[in-house]
Write a structure and sequence with these properties.
The protein is of the alpha/beta class. The protein is built from 16 helices and 21 strands. The strands form 4 sheets. An 8-stranded parallel β-sheet has the order 6-12-13-14-15-16-17-18. Strand 14, helix 9 and strand 15 form a beta-alpha-beta unit.
């Protein structure tokens, strides 16, 4: 594609979507709630999907429903700002490989499952992380464990997959020497595995949406590598109404989106305010675990070899062309960049175009680029749980530089807007997990990893709730009710926070009240 690069075109980050205009919930009073960080007891009046009054209400008009929060904490509803929703919905159907500490151990797990796979079906596993394995994945090892059963094992970071010979033949790589596919070859296999009947996938997605609502989630940014407009319109019309959804557009669908006049932040008709157009997503490098994140320095052990700095999947001029095309059409850019060099190049593109947008992951950064995020108005869309998944890999492959990894506090101090997410299924679709990781920089009994980059509970909540850390009059009534004060809970309690209720524009999508 060759198009002129436009001049500066500002593309604002969309605000929280409005309350649904169809099937509006009736007026509701939430009695005896607390606001985070306060012992004050308040009542909340919700009318037409918005918070209209907050404080002591006394008597209200007859016929208005009243729900007693019993002094639980009322907070803004949570968003997961980066998910791959269909893949997340499929995760429960796949063999869990997260416990495998070696290729041999992963093969043993597969060998235990292979006998129950029906003829013609593919055994799919998810969650292996081979960056620290003492042995290497290989097709012969999987073949010995599975025989003729096609096997695809997807890495926990989604940037590589390990296939046996039967699966390699099925997916067009019969001569591949190792069976370990990376980046685009991997993505193609993952997309093919997602081709299940719509009714089946939509059922899984509805269950996943309800599970998300039970964790206080009111909205997601879906970065699935698919044409998500039709998918989500079908799901919502079919009854999936637990979440707001902003859907992303990838390069393979960019021209289609432009022809339809899709613009970031615009709602989709016929979805009751639940579906809106998100960003244009482009992936420019890989991941740290796969050693494909594009970095300034070479990876230890790969010096002098092809790809020793990682993989740059979109050259700078090509990136500029794609982003310019999207921005001119009103689509906000969201650029995947993990390595420090990839982040610098993405910021260069934003600077040359003079537009806002986001960098998805912003994981490994040069110190000078932290200030550039703020100056350019680029949102850092980060996944704090990845810091805990990648800490040992980073200590090995980014030794001496990990003080520049997941620098949430530095970004905030520089005035950068951060948005927290999970990248599910890479991490669980659960904002409390992200909040706990951002606040504590650890899980379990390990010492915090670079605790100087921990952020406050207020900042973490705001980054998970579209900038809100407190419920205010006039807000859309996208709310959650917690059993503990999120501003006072311990890090372990944050991670397992009990959510008593979730409301979407004043309508309960989850409740135990």
């Amino acid at each position: 594609m060759s198009v002129p690069v436009p001049g500066p075109v500002p593309v604002p980050v969309p605000a929280s979507p409005p309350a649904p205009v169809t099937a509006a919930a009736p007026p509701l009073v939430l009695r005896n709630g607390r606001l985070p960080g306060s012992d004050e007891i308040v009542d909340t009046l919700i009318v037409d999907g918005r918070v209209r009054r907050l404080g002591y209400l006394g008597q209200v008009a007859a016929g208005i429903r009243s729900v007693d929060l019993a002094e639980r904490w009322l907070i803004p509803g949570l968003w997961d700002n980066h998910v791959h929703f269909s893949q997340w919905a499929q995760t429960n159907q796949r063999l869990d490989l997260s416990s495998a500490g070696s290729a041999a151990a992963a093969a043993d797990l597969v060998a235990g499952r292979a006998p129950v796979i029906s003829m013609g079906e593919t055994l799919v596993g998810f969650g292996f992380r081979d960056g620290l394995w003492p042995d290497a994945p290989g097709r012969a090892l999987l073949d010995a464990a599975t025989g003729p059963v096609p096997v695809v094992l997807i890495s926990g970071d989604l940037h590589s997959c390990w296939l046996n010979s039967a699966a390699l033949a099925r997916h067009g790589h019969p001569e591949h020497p190792t069976g370990l596919l990376r980046e685009e070859d991997c993505f193609a296999v993952v997309r093919a595995l997602a081709e299940v009947p719509d009714a089946v996938m939509d059922g899984w997605a509805d269950s996943a949406a309800r599970a998300a609502a039970s964790r206080g989630v009111v909205g997601i940014v879906d970065m699935e590598m698919d044409w998500n407009l039709d998918t989500w319109r079908r799901r919502i019309r079919g009854g999936t109404d637990s979440l707001r959804v902003e859907f992303g557009v990838y390069t393979q669908h960019l021209e289609r989106a432009i022809e339809l006049g899709l613009q970031s932040g615009a709602g989709v008709d016929g979805t009751g305010g639940l579906l809106s157009v998100g960003a244009y997503k482009v992936i420019t490098d890989g991941s740290l675990n796969t050693r494909t994140a594009y970095c300034v320095d070479e990876y230890p052990g790969l010096e002098g070899q092809p790809g020793s700095h990682g993989v740059l999947t979109v050259p700078p001029e090509e990136l500029l062309t794609y982003l310019g095309r999207a921005v001119a059409a009103g689509l906000r850019p969201a650029v995947h960049a993990i390595g420090d060099r990839a982040n610098a190049l993405a910021l260069d593109a934003f600077e040359r175009l003079g537009c806002a947008g986001s960098i998805e992951h912003a994981q490994l950064l040069d110190r000078e680029d932290v200030a550039r995020f703020a100056r350019l108005g680029v949102v850092a869309s980060v996944q704090p749980e990845h810091a805990l998944d990648d800490r040992d890999v980073a200590d090995r492959y980014w030794a001496g530089r990990t003080d520049r990894a997941f620098v949430l506090k530095s970004l905030l101090n520089a005035g950068v807007t951060i948005a927290l997410g999970s990248d599910a299924p890479v991490a669980p679709l659960d904002p409390w997990v992200s909040i706990a990781a951002a606040v504590g920089r650890t899980r379990g009994s390990r010492e915090p990893w670079h605790p100087e980059q921990a952020i406050s509970r207020q900042a973490a909540l705001a980054a998970s709730a579209r900038g809100r850390h407190r419920v205010l009059v006039g807000d859309v009534a996208d709310l959650a009710v917690c059993e503990l004060d999120p501003f006072g809970a311990s890090v372990p309690d944050l991670r397992r926070m009990s959510v008593a209720a979730t409301l979407l524009a004043g309508r309960f999508t989850h409740t135990t009240l």
